[in-house]
Amino acid sequence: MALTDTVFMQEFRSNWRVLLVAFTCFLFAFSAPAFLMPFIYPEVIEAFGWTREQATLLASAKYLTGSIIAIAVGRFIDVMGVRKVLIAVSVIGGLAMVSFLWTPNLTIYYAAGVMLGFAGAGTMVAIKVLISRTFHASQGTAMGIAMLGTSVGGVIVPLVITWLIETYGWRVGSALLSAGVWIVALPLMVFFLTDESFESAEAKDTLAPHEPAALSRVVVSELAMQPQFWLIALAVFAAGFVDQAFIQHQVLYLKDDLGMSASHYAGGIAAMGLLGIVIRPLVGGLFDKMSTRGVSLSYMMLAFGSLFALGAINPYLFAAFVVFRAIGHSAVLLDTTVLAKHTFGLKNIGIILGVYTGAVNLGFATGPWFMARMFVVTGSYVTPFIICCGVAIFAAAVLIPVKPVYWLDLRARSKSGLAAYAVS
Predict the structure, then answer these.
(1) What does the pLDDT profile of the chain (424 residues) look like in tens digits?
(2) Residue 6: which residues within 8 A CB-CB, separation 6 or more?
(3) Measured in whole angstroms, how far is the alpha carbon of residue 282 from the centre of its chain?
(4) 143/19 Cα distance (integer angstroms)
(5) According to DSSP H, which parts of 81-147 are helical?
(6) DSSP assignment, residue 185?
(7) Dist. CA 280–CA 102, nearest whole Å
(8) Using an 8 Å Cβ cutoff, are 55 and 109 in contact?
(9) I want to staple 312 with a disulfide (CB 3.0 to 4.6 A). Which of 65, 318, 341, 358 is the partner?
(10) Do 101 and 175 touch, CB atoms closer than 8 A?
(11) Secondary structure class of 285 (helix, strand, coil)
(12) Spatial distance between the Cα atoms of 30 and 32, rounded to a whole number of angstroms
């Protein structure tokens, strides 16, 4: 947990509604389209005759857009607030899934990826900001619980989309998967919580979230002069590179290269999500207790997952691959929230998280493309898997010099008897 269970419960009792909305947004508006994509690649390859590289470039279109949009979204959140941004990006994501009903060619296919980039990056940055401004001593734990939405999505979506594709085809199946956005996520944001519910959380930030854009640019420019600012960006980029390289290719690898049945590979991917339900809050608690050291440790799990993928045809090694992938994936995206606040505090948190989410999305965009290109060049996944192992180790090493100044100050004030969750 956080510094103490009591502190977390104090924060939770005051902010459980915010945590519920964050969980729901991650489940329906973020996870559904994210976990959908790997399952439609084999379908579009068969339907249109596209190559693996062409099919998986949907992910690159999505995450390259997200890397650009994340920075702008962070600034919009600082100015407009979380609620309006969340509603807008959720609608865009839902429409993107519906658009697969009429996808005739690569251009329109990639356009859907661009829309998904708006939705994914916008949702992630908005939730990160909201959690960072609402939970302080238990930020990592709270973000881990909110991101259980992605873990639950990791369990449900592979099973549901596999059934939908087998029953209705990939076009209708993709559109039907958007129902959670329209029926659950949007109504909850619109009717369950008011603007005041969101803004009351943001108002706890005595460092004033709504600062002039010129001041924000000055502060970020000053931060950009610090080596640790770029070390964090490099680390989260590398971790995102490895994570999405595997996510976007795992169905193609397990189905086509290893010859697994739909129930086998869908069950394995769902198992990763099921494990994530248990693991993600524990990873968040680890980050609360160890900060940057905990993040480095979690990146090593990505490295182990890359190695065990090489022997996934063996049932025991496949199980190990599932476990290490679940642990490593649980850290990605949760890491940026913790690293940003633990190092720099809440000052201009929106735009800082936007920058780091942009770095992650750039990794998300290049990882799947790299994996596809290496497969074309070498004819197998062996070389890219080994390279990804090295990249994950590099990400872990890059964080070693980073000093979590704000986190150390919180712990010092807690030990001196001050409220650990008060904002300085």
Answers:
(1) 444 456 667 667 777 778 888 898 888 988 888 888 999 999 999 999 999 889 999 988 998 888 888 777 766 776 777 778 888 889 999 999 999 999 999 999 999 999 998 888 888 888 877 887 777 666 677 777 888 888 788 888 888 999 999 999 999 999 999 999 999 988 888 877 665 555 554 445 444 444 444 445 556 677 778 888 999 999 999 999 999 999 889 888 998 888 888 888 888 888 888 888 888 778 888 888 888 899 999 999 999 999 999 998 899 999 999 999 989 988 887 788 889 888 887 766 767 877 888 898 899 989 999 999 999 899 899 999 999 999 999 999 999 999 888 888 877 776 665 444 444 4
(2) none
(3) 17
(4) 8
(5) 82-99, 106-134, 139-146
(6) I
(7) 37
(8) no
(9) 318
(10) yes
(11) helix
(12) 6
Residue at 98: amino acid letter: V
- Classified by CATH at the fold level, domain 17-415 comes out as Growth Hormone; Chain: A; (1.20.1250)
For tokens 């993709």, what's the residue?
Answer: 174
User: Which tokens go with 82?
Assistant: 């979380």
The two tokens of residue 380 are: 């197998």
Domain boundaries along the sequence of the chain: 17-415
